[in-house]
DNA helicase RecQ (Pelomonas lactea), 629 residues
Amino acid sequence: MNPPVHLPSPTDDLQSAAHQVLSAVFGYTAFRGQQAEIVEQVAAGGDALVLMPTGGGKSLCYQVPAILRHTRGQGVAIVVSPLIALMHDQVGALEEAGVHAAFLNSSLTGEEASRVEREMMSGRLTLLYAAPERLTTPRFLAQLESLRERGLLSMFAIDEAHCVSQWGHDFRSEYLQLSLLHERFPEVPRIALTATADDLTRADIIQRLQLQDARVFISSFDRPNIRYLIVEKNGSPREQLLRFIQDDHDGEAGVIYCQSRKKVEETAEWLKSEGINALPYHAGLDADVRRRHQDRFLREEGLVIVATIAFGMGIDKPDVRFVAHLDLPKNIEAYYQETGRAGRDGAPAEAWMTYGLADVVNQRRMIDESPADEVFKQGQRGKLDALLALCEATDCRRVRLLAYFGEQSKPCGNCDNCLNPPATWDATEAARKLLSCIYRFHQRGQSFGAGHLIDVLRGKVTDKTRQHGHDQLSTWGCGADLSEQQWRAVLRQLIALGHVAAEGEFHTLALQDSARGVLKGEVEIRLREAEEKKPRGKGAKAGRTAKPKADPALGLDADATERFEALKAWRSEVAKEHGLPAYVIFQNTTLAEMARQMPADLAELGEISGVGAKKLEAYGSEILRVLGR
Ligand code: ADP
Ligand code: ZN
């Protein structure tokens, strides 16, 4: 630890010492949620398992105890993380805050690695980040033994702990070896952290990491600053996306998820041609290009990344203002994790998704055609159904999301359905017509896809309807009163509910057993009213992009916004000099507070959340100068 940060003395009680670290090092005034309890548990030498949503503030849960234990002469904390790409920035952020930290991974030269090892072995380091495969090498284990013998092995933090479970979505076999930490160093406190763990995964983590004696801390999974918006695809989804970005997120950082590499490339190209600063990211790109794009996304402001789900593991960029899905994610867990990358700084952010019939059909087919066994597929179908129910929902999205994770909540007031309760209509009769039309085809030994079915229902004459004599069917034209869009919605819902299946290469439609109840009129089907197609640029907030642009996300007026921009420009310079992402120097929320409050002197500046002692000393007078003080 370097001066000038004034740390608690070893005689202070844990609680007040933890608060001192929080304010002196990180510049924050209060712990969030369960952070304080977690810190105490680990600092006092106990084990902990922490389940906290992305952006909840997991890092402090191990960084504060590590600092406390280090000031008490207990040596080095070892942080296990699979995210090699992030270690550099995490360590940079700690050093900026005046905490001596380092990482060991394959990106270091032999000489650099030896230097880090020397720092570690001397006990001078407060935190050492390492990848799991390094941790379990005989050489590293011997070094840990030596530290332990000298009382200099302070604790272990195991980040992304769900990687130890095959039930999770990021299983990594190297994580299995981490059980040896407990076997070899039973007296060293451990904290395992994850943002995603259902009951099975949680049980797995406890068992595999031998955390039976750990206190388990489960936070609410709610992310109140994220607004959930799910819209139906209407003709051109990417136009919908563009309008969403232009109207509400002009010049802001965002992530757009697509299912295929091809679509990623095309979407990024197209957005660029429309003036959006977008970059593609997928596993098929050259490793170098990928790294460069990720790096630019982290370091530059207002970049949009278009990506497959290969992107994001460990993107802890705090000021991502939106996450958009052009294709359905795999399930609700994936949706929640991906959308969770928005708004980690706590400022308003949006999760936007567009979905349509083709998504439903594709996802079902991918499950049906996968080589997995039937039990597994059944599980996957159940998860898909839950996601589709979320899409079709007419009530609060957040209530449904949280219910999925076992939490009860009240309508949130911050999702599309709460803000604009959708009109619904009774589609029971329409559903019956649709099902009986499929049934008529079936009686003739035929099956067709959605397009033809809807043509027959609407009585639209085509070559195909003529060729098959379908204008003779009793269902011909029985649904002329509904639009094609409405029929698609009905069909989508029927597929989502499992009454109809889309089969084979041509997605031909087949009735399922449960359709009988609907045909008989025993099941009510209510649907969202299809949304009107809005002309481009006429969205609710159109015109907001006109300058001078106040920053509504951060609640700044035009003058404050100008100061904010000046601070950001200054920050860019500093970040470049230090080779770190801008947010490591100060986060947007902190700069915004400075711009709003206009601190008169260093003392006032130091009161602002996010300004720790080291940063105040290093940058304080510069900031006052930028603010014209
Ligand atoms: P997670 O790892 O859980 O996704 P982080 O540890 O990255 O979350 O924290 C998310 C954001 O919240 C970071 O910008 C962090 O600085 C901020 N943060 C965490 N704890 C606090 C706190 N007690 N007060 C203010 N900001 C906090
Ligand atoms: Zn809601």
Q: What stands out?
A: The domain at 425-528 is CATH 1.10.10.10 (Arc Repressor Mutant, subunit A). The radius of gyration is 28 Å. Residues 86 and 506 are 44 Å apart (CA to CA). The chain has four domains: 14-218, 226-421, 425-528, 552-626.
